[in-house]
């Protein structure tokens, strides 16, 4: 600033006069530096790192300079000139303007030299960013400020018509139309980064995805389950190569988080199947609401250990018991309920693989059916407020043992709830059931299998050209389970709107395309034992009632007598110890008349 003041003074006076009085002028302007020191200190002008200078730093420096200049002019009128060479107001203002110019020139020069020294454009991956509002700009700034850099920002993509042709952060904005791929190629760009606010638009624009994938443009986006608040900083390291889960069209699901939090905060929660795909996500989501205690049950030791580590790492403040046991181990479950007395039970434990249960119906009865009865009865005995069972769409018009076992679980829980309501069973527990279809990426589901087959070079095995399935993200499904558990009053079977079904062969083709592979074959292996071409969320004899949530319906199902349900389960359990598969399945068909086997050795029982 001292140099700026002297130069500005020389511009308004003769150079000879300035030189002759340089000593006196220097002393005078030293006095005028005090206001600038105060102003720079006040606005923390020197707190920033020069190579990261931004518009915010420009504003801060401008305000500091204006404040310092104003204080200096005030000092002049207070008589500072009497102690040195007289200066004019225009000299002080010119000095401030020149100082501002020099400060910013130095910052720009340092930033340029740093980038020239440490950022080699030839090594950077040129990218476009899809999104020009908050999310896109936050992502762009993350890229520009990264060191060492990996990306070179070459352009933006906008859905609006007002931005194309303009420039943001030195990069041109292009319109999202049929010429987008052409613009990418002309700009030597092979990667599109997607703003988190554009995830849903991209998923619901298959034409855009098709054009990009066909042109072998890599798409990177934020995890589908990650929500951005529009304010916090984005880190582009969170971006991942787009996967099929990211591109399946689906509507955004909103839930009443305050109501769920009010229900679960400070409560004791027991979750069965806590190490599984659904159960472990239930653990994560329930933990965010601050329960007093989590009691987690699963019989898979290694995944359960992973859950224990997750809780210790992310939620160390929550009391958590991780117990390796089977829900069908009645004495152990009795001890757990007696010791912890949970307020809420989320029952996700079950054997779920159709072919495995088709070959092992006795185990399906002992684990799925008897295990559910054990914990349901204990929930009533030890005063659990609400019991939420996670069922499946395979329980509707079942064609396999697994689906039928889950339907029998539904019958037991609903009939027990009705018996409590009628005063036939003493207790206050409310039983709620939730039904939904396949969840994306769950253990043993089709997508992980396809990924593994692609890694090996194929072929991808699809059971039938026309087979279709409903899909939902695991976090979305768990949020709906929590929402249904909140709204349920007891006895309901909630059905989730799963959106549009997806043809599995189309899923396979898209995954091959996304992988960049060219010659991977798709083979049709034939329907597996008990497998349906399509899944149903309601039987032909069931209707639904709407709820306040557009994605959750209540199935109006046939109700069963509790005592009859108990007798049927006792007969089934006794038969299971004989391991006579035909007799076990015959009894299951007797209990659930709509159970008609398909592509199974048990079809002879339907004749």
What's the SSE blueprint?
Elements: H1 2-12, H2 15-20, H3 22-43, H4 55-77, H5 89-118, E1 125-130, H6 134-144, E2 151-158, E3 167-168, E4 171-175, H7 180-186, E5 191-194, H8 199-203, H9 206-214, E6 218-221, E7 240-241, H10 244-247, H11 257-264, E8 268-272, H12 277-287, E9 293-298, H13 301-314, E10 319-324, H14 330-340, E11 344-347, H15 354-359, H16 361-381, E12 386-390, H17 401-421, E13 430-435, E14 438-439, H18 446-455, E15 460-462, E16 468-469, E17 471-472, H19 474-487, E18 493-496, E19 502-503, H20 504-515, E20 522-524, E21 543-546, E22 552-556, H21 562-576, H22 581-591
Helix pairs in contact: 1-5, 3-4, 4-5, 11-19, 12-19, 14-16, 16-17, 16-21, 17-21, 17-22, 18-20, 21-22
Transmembrane segments: 20-40, 61-80, 92-110
Organism: gut metagenome
Domain Polysaccharide biosynthesis protein CapD-like: 269-556
Structure overview:
Helix content is 46%, strand content 15%. The protein is an alpha/beta fold. It folds into 3 domains: 2-118, no CATH class; 121-242, Rossmann fold (3-Layer(aba) Sandwich), CATH 3.40.50; 264-438 and 473-498 and 543-603, 3-Layer(aba) Sandwich (Rossmann fold). The strands form 5 sheets. A 9-stranded mixed beta sheet has the order 10-9-8-11-12-13-18-22-21, sandwiched between helices. The longest helix has 30 residues, at 89-118. The protein is elongated. Mean pLDDT is 82; it is low at 16-20.
